[in-house]
From TrEMBL:
It comes from Pseudaminobacter soli (ex Zhang et al. 2022). The lineage of its organism: Bacteria, Pseudomonadati, Pseudomonadota, Alphaproteobacteria, Hyphomicrobiales. SUPFAM superfamilies: NAD(P)-binding Rossmann-fold domains (SSF51735). GO terms for molecular function: 3-hydroxybutyrate dehydrogenase activity. GO terms for biological process: monocarboxylic acid metabolic process. Belongs to the short-chain dehydrogenases/reductases (SDR) family. This is 3-hydroxybutyrate dehydrogenase. NCBIfam families: PHB_DH, PRK12429.1. InterPro entries: 3-OHbutyrate_DH (IPR011294), NAD(P)-bd_dom_sf (IPR036291), Sc_DH/Rdtase_CS (IPR020904), SDR (IPR050259), SDR_fam (IPR002347).
Amino acid sequence: QLSPRTAIITGSTSGIGLGIARQLAAEGCNVVVNSFSDTPEDRATAESLSAEHGVKAIYVQADMSDPEQCRSLVASAAAAFGSVDILVNNAGVQYVAPVEEFPIAKWNQIIAINLSSAFHTSAAAIPFMKQTGRGRIVNIASAHGLVASAYKSAYVAAKHGIMGLTKTIALELAQDGITCNAVCPGYVLTPLVEAQIPDQMKAHGMDRETVIREVMLDRQPTKQFVTVEQVAAAVSFLCSEAASQMNGTHVSVDGGWTAQ
Ligand code: NAD
């Protein structure tokens, strides 16, 4: 019987990250829940995963825009659980503006959180994965890792960047029992997306249903949101033994968006 796997999921107090933490806990992993905040709710999230699934779960506060904190997140996980088997780089933020007006601070923040954090956490986690001869790194990219949309320069650049990082890490570790892959979701109705709906309703003078169908899901051929559980299931598969020959690639969960 193998000892339980340890999974770190960055940005996992809400949305897709929380869904992935739930899925991996349900499969018996000890999980490290992370965000930049430090509230009783953050710790309660970890406690409820533990209570619900009978695994160990801890909350570690670390700001993924800070290289040192990215690396110390991994060190804390290893100190708590003795190994790092799964690293899911999920933390991400969005900002929308024309490129010539895009605030420099927003550009730097998005590149730091959506791209550079995965470099730092991976660099810190790989030595632990090499110790056990097994490891899974899954980067939550986006359909925007494969195609672009106007006004999302930093996000699209960071997500395309993480696709390149995914391939490079995969090649470097291909003989170490470690794989590195990306999952590319289309639109998922998380707090990140929900927050954009009122602005879009105002900007387009549309009601909620019309904004969802004609603006948000315009390029998602199924005209349905992807669910958090569907993204988590793709991550779970990439973490399984069956996926040991999937390496340096991506799984799209986008309702057909990138088929166009
Ligand atoms: P969300 O806003 O619901 O959750 C983001 C999580 O990241 C939260 O837990 C937040 O606290 C955390 N976070 C934000 N900044 C952080 C920081 N500096 N340090 C640590 N944690 C931080 O967003 P979501 O929709 O669940 O997005 C999760 C990931 O999925 C992101 O990388 C996003 O780009 C990607 N994604 C989302 C969609 C979508 O439609 N929702 C589509 C494709 C890809």
